[in-house]
Amino acid sequence: MRIYLIAPAPDDKTDTAAETSMAGVKTPFTLSAAAGIVSVAAWLPRGTDIRICDEVVQEVDLGAEVDPVGLSINVSQVARGLDLARAFRRRGGPVVLGGAHVSLATEIFRGQADCLVIGAFETAAPDFAADLLAGALKPEYRCGKADMAAMPLPRRDLYPNDRAIAGVVQTSRGCPFDGTFCDVIQYVGRKQRHRPPEKVLAEPDQLYRLGYREVSLSDDNFTVYRKRTHALPEALIGWNSSAGRDPVRFSTQISIDAARDADLLALCNRAGLRQVFVGLETSDPAALVEANKRQNLHVGLIGECRKLVAAGLTIRGGLIAGFYHDDLGCFERQFAFAQALPVDGFNVSAPVAPYATPLCAEMKRAGRSVDADTHRVSAAGARMTNMLPAQMTREELAEGRAWLKAALLAPDAALVRFEAYARTSGPPSQDMGRTAWVKPGARRHPLHELLPLMMKDKGKRRVILAVPEMVAERPETGYDLTSTLTLYLSDCARAANRAEAPLEAAQ
What we know:
By secondary structure, the chain is of the alpha/beta class. It contains 17 helices and 15 strands.
């Protein structure tokens, strides 16, 4: 039996939904290897011939001679996923759809495939595998909550590992926070469930053998439960750089309240946790109340970010513009806020009402919902929001957001933040300079392709030449500064692609 598992490309390849891909390089490259399809592959019957396709870095083989085709679809992949499902069904083979958006919006996928997997695949995997071998797949498999300790090692041996910078390890599911614009609790629940540290460590070990030296810990909020949060970094400390290994650089997602726990931050540094995504959203208290981002209220966000960076964490900040209270001046206010931070990289989004959330229902009742049934713009990275803003038009919001992203990437602005970051950044407890790009058969690091392209632009060249000067002053931060430069240049290349794409294409 031959099985083909596909992670479709994002529908809008020019915007936030596609920011896991590297822009500006000739060969397709991704910042983070696709985790879902390799995890599903680990549950499939032994002896089956399994192929993997991450469409961010590979072309889908529409002529593949396979039995079932499995597509894992999240909200940013709906249109492309359904296109692929139709193409494979026309060839007569069975098609299975699963993933986050199939679970949240099951009704739009019924009739589009031969089988739907609704919820976390693990609990239905044994029945699914038996039915697959018997040629008797059910129309739907409804799944329960998975035992995080029983998850097998993903089949990363099937993945094109030479096309990814970081491997991804899932450490928990669920989030206790109830962010207005977030659908995490609708999919995986409010109660956070954790994998035991010893189970987590098996995966970085596997990734290290495959040549990875950067690992993303997939966790909706790594620091929310302090007891568990201390236990995992302690385990990573014992693993990282032991047994003669080069140090591995970890990344994850945290909330700003982690800045209050100095002991935790010290543990993270010793563990090799160097990069974090933090949902800052905005400095406007009224908008934070609207977003139900209570952990960001009543604290000085700029000062808290400085604490995180001083502890050795590189922040990728999440910003949102276009809240109910926001007028057209919000974009300049967000720019001023960002420029005061020791943070170079940002994901800039507009508010959206994710499907199946209370906000989505509220927007429908208020007559402020757009494209709610087609799901075309319900991803946070879509250039056009699926809500009608109160103080501006959707077009003005899209234009203002585009201006903000461009303003943050402007060389003069970026240099201010690079310099603040370089001055503030705490040194790693391990020699990250020993970390090498060592994957068998791998190309050179994509930075080597980005540099010649960006050196042609006078402004970008100033940033590129300034970073080695910063590294010369503080050599211990060289790896972090170089990684930050790589992401900045990729963002610049993506912005150039975005400028060439008409706005109507993303509506």
